[in-house]
C-alpha cells in the first residue's frame, strides 16, 4: 500500500460531512404545552411555515410559528374529536388547512383562520367517515389537489377526494391482513408503500389497488417504518430476529432481497426515517432516544454513508419537521426538526446546518424544492395521469411557472428596449448624414475643393457625439459588472468545494514546510541585496554570483555560521545605511509625482465634464 493510499484511506469528499445540529435557546422554544402522554408512535407534531400543531390527547393546539416562549395552558385549541388524535398533517397546498385522524374512526379537516385561533375551534370544515375502526395514518397527495390517503386499524386504505361537496371516496384497498404500521407516498404520488404486522413491505398503486411488489422487510415483530427515496428506492427501519434495530434499502420493483441492510444498535425505541429529497440525506430518530443519526445516500453500493449524529441529553417523544420552503437559507440550514421532549412540556426546534462562512445564497445546497401549488387536480390524477410536483426557487421564493412568466416578460421588455435604442441610434445617424449632405452642398457652390473634402470627412454634430459617448460608458459599465459577477462566481465555486484533510504525519509535514520557508526567505534576502547594490557595484558581478551560490548551498546544508560570514563579505553597515536613505528619497519623489499625476487626472476629468455640458446646451 502506498503512502497516498494510507493518508487518504476512509476519506470520502462530501459537502455534508460536517453538518451539525444546532439546538434552540430556551426562550426560543415552545414551553408549557400539554403534550399527549400516549404510548403510540404516531405523528403528534405537524409544522408548516405558518403554524405549529401539537396533539394534546383528544384535542390539539395550533400556535403561530413565531410565537415562541411560554404557551398559556388555557390557550385556544381545536376540539371536535371524541377519541385520541393519532395523526396530524398540514395540507401542502394550503397552510391554513390541517387534517386530523382519530381513535373515533373519523378524519376531520380544519380551517385555521389567518393569524391563528382566537377561540376554541369546534366545527370542522369536512368530516370523512369510511373506516370501521380507528384511523392510524393519513397522507396528503404531493401533486394532486385535495387528495387524501388514510390507513386504519381495520386493515383498509382509503383514497379521498376532499375537494368535492360530497367528499367522494375514490378507492378502498383491501390487501392487508394485519395491522398497518406505516404509510408512505412517493414524490409524484403514483405509488404508496406500507409496512404491516405480517412483516411485509408492500408497494401499491393507489388508484387501482394493485400490489406492484411485496416482500419480507424485517424479521422482528416490533413496528417497522418505510419512506420513499429517489431513483425507485425505498428505505425501511425495523428490528431483526434478535431485536436489533436495522435499516434496509430496497428496489421498489424487487422486494425479494434488500440492496443493503445494516444494524443500527440494540435499543428498543421505534426508529422513524425522514428523507430530504433535495440534499439526499436521511435522518433516523428513535422514540425515547436523545440522538438523531443522519446519513447521505448515493446511487451505487453501499448506497448509504454514515455522516454524524446530533446528541442531546433529553429523550424525544416525537419529531416533526419543517418543509424545505420554511428553512433559513441565510444560515445554511438544510433541515429543521421540532422535538417534543418526553419529560417536560417543551417543543424544541433543532436546525441541521452546513457550516459555511459566507452568508450569501448557496445554490449547491438549495436546489428548486416543492412549491405550495398543486400540479394537477384530483379527477385528472384518478384518471391515470402522473406528473412531477411543482417546484419553487429557494432564492427568490417564486414557483417555476411564475419565474418563467417573469423571465418572458423581462425578455420581451429587454427586446423592446433594444429595438427602441437601435431605432433611435439610426435616427441620430440619419439626421447626421442629412446635415452633413446639406453642408457639403452649400460649400460646393462656393468652393468645389472644400465641398469634396467635407463629403469625405467623418463629420459629427454635438448630439451624435453625446449619444455615442453615453453608449460607450454604458458598455464599459456592463463589462465591469460582468467581470465582477464572473469573479464572484469563481470565488464562491472555489469556497464551496469540499475540503480534503491531510493525513500525513505531523513531523514530516513540519520538516517540509520549514525547509520551504527557509529556502524562500534566503532567496528573497539575496534578491533584496542584489537590488540595493546593483546600481552602485556593476563591476562586482562575480562576487554576487559567488554569494548566490553560497546562499543556496547554505539553505541545503542549514549552516548558520557560514551564511553570516558570506553576508559580511558584501559591504559595511555605513554603505547599507546610505543605500537605504537613497531609496527612501526616491520613494518620496515617486509619491510626489504620483500625487501630481492624480491631481492632473482629476482636473482633466472636470474639464471633460464641462465640455460635455457645453455641447449638450
From TrEMBL:
Residues 426-485 are annotated as: Disordered. Residues 430-452 have a biased composition (Low complexity). It comes from the Eukaryota. This is Coronin. Keywords: Actin-binding, Coiled coil, Repeat, WD repeat. Residues 580-614 form a coiled coil. Residues 474-485 have a biased composition (Basic and acidic residues). Belongs to the WD repeat coronin family. Residues 9-69 form the DUF1899 domain. Transmembrane segments: none annotated. Residues 453-473 have a biased composition (Polar residues). WD repeats lie at residues 78-120, 128-170. InterPro entries: Coronin, DUF1899, WD40/YVTN_repeat-like_dom_sf, WD40_repeat_CS, WD40_repeat_dom_sf, WD40_rpt.
Amino acid at each position: 500500500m502506498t503512502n497516498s493510499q494510507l493518508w487518504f484511506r476512509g476519506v470520502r469528499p462530501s459537502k455534508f460531512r460536517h453538518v451539525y445540529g444546532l439546538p434552540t435557546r430556551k426562550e426560543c422554544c415552545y414551553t408549557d404545552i400539554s403534550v399527549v402522554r400516549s404510548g403510540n408512535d404516531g405523528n403528534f407534531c405537524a409544522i408548516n411555515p405558518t403554524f405549529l400543531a401539537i396533539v394534546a390527547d383528544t384535542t390539539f393546539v395550533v400556535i403561530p410559528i413565531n410565537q415562541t416562549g411560554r404557551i398559556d395552558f388555557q390557550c385556544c385549541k381545536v376540539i371536535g374529536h371524541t377519541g385520541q388524535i393519532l395523526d396530524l398533517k398540514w395540507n401542502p397546498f394550503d397552510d391554513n388547512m390541517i387534517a386530523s385522524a382519530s381513535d373515533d374512526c373519523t378524519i376531520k379537516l380544519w380551517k385555521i383562520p389567518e393569524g391563528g385561533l382566537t377561540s376554541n375551534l369546534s366545527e370542522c370544515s369536512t368530516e370523512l367517515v369510511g373506516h370501521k375502526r380507528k384511523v392510524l395514518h393519513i397522507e396528503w397527495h404531493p401533486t394532486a389537489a385535495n387528495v387524501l390517503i388514510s390507513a386504519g386499524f381495520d386493515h383498509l386504505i382509503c383514497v379521498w377526494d376532499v375537494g368535492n361537496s360530497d367528499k367522494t371516496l375514490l378507492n378502498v384497498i383491501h390487501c392487508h391482513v394485519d395491522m398497518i404500521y406505516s404509510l408512505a407516498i412517493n414524490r409524484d404520488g403514483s405509488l404508496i408503500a406500507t409496512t404491516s404486522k405480517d412483516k411485509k413491505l408492500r408497494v401499491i398503486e393507489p388508484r387501482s389497488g394493485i400490489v406492484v411488489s411485496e416482500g419480507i422487510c424485517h424479521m422482528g415483530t416490533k413496528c417497522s417504518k418505510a419512506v420513499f427515496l429517489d431513483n425507485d428506492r425505498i428505505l425501511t427501519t425495523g428490528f431483526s430476529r434478535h431485536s436489533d434495530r436495522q435499516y434496509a434499502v430496497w428496489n421498489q420493483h424487487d422486494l425479494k432481497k434488500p440492496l443493503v441492510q445494516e444494524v443500527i444498535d440494540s435499543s428498543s425505541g421505534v426508529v422513524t426515517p425522514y428523507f430530504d429529497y433535495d440534499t439526499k440525506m436521511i435522518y433516523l430518530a428513535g422514540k425515547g432516544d436523545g440522538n438523531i443519526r443522519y446519513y447521505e445516500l448515493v446511487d451505487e453500493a453501499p448506497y448509504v454513508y454514515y455522516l454524524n449524529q446530533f446528541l442531546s441529553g433529553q429523550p424525544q417523544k416525537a419529531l416533526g419537521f419543517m418543509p424545505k420552503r420554511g428553512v433559513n437559507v441565510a444560515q445554511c440550514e438544510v433541515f429543521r426538526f421540532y422535538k417534543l421532549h418526553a419529560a417536560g412540556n417543551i417543543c424544541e426546534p433543532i436546525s441541521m446546518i452546513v457550516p459555511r462562512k459566507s452568508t450569501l445564497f448557496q445554490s449547491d445546497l438549495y436546489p428548486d424544492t416543492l412549491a405550495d401549488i398543486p400540479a394537477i387536480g384530483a379527477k385528472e390524477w384518478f384518471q391515470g395521469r402522473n406528473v412531477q410536483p411543482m417546484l419553487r426557487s429557494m432564492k427568490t421564493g417564486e414557483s417555476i411557472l411564475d419565474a418563467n412568466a417573469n423571465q418572458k416578460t423581462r425578455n420581451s421588455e429587454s427586446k423592446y428596449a433594444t429595438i427602441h435604442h437601435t431605432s433611435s441610434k439610426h435616427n441620430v445617424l440619419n439626421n447626421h448624414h442629412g446635415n452633413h449632405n446639406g453642408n457639403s452642398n452649400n460649400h460646393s457652390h462656393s468652393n468645389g475643393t472644400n465641398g469634396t473634402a467635407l463629403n469625405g470627412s467623418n463629420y459629427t454634430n454635438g448630439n451624435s457625439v453625446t449619444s455615442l459617448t453615453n453608449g460607450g460608458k454604458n458598455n464599459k459599465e456592463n463589462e465591469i459588472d460582468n467581470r465582477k459577477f464572473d469573479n464572484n462566481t469563481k470565488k464562491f465555486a472555489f469556497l464551496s468545494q469540499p475540503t480534503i484533510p491531510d493525513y500525513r504525519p505531523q513531523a514530516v509535514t513540519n520538516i517540509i514546510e520549514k525547509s520551504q520557508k527557509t529556502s524562500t526567505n534566503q532567496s528573497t534576502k539575496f534578491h533584496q541585496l542584489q537590488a540595493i547594490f546593483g546600481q552602485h557595484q556593476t563591476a562586482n558581478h562575480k562576487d554576487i554570483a559567488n554569494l548566490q551560490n553560497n546562499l543556496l548551498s547554505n539553505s541545503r546544508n542549514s549552516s548558520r555560521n557560514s551564511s553570516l560570514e558570506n553576508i559580511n563579505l558584501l559591504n559595511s553597515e555605513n554603505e547599507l545605511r546610505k543605500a537605504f536613505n537613497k531609496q527612501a528619497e526616491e520613494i518620496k519623489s515617486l509619491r510626489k509625482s504620483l500625487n501630481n499625476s492624480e491631481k492632473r487626472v482629476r482636473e482633466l476629468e472636470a474639464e471633460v465634464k464641462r465640455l460635455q455640458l457645453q455641447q449638450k446646451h
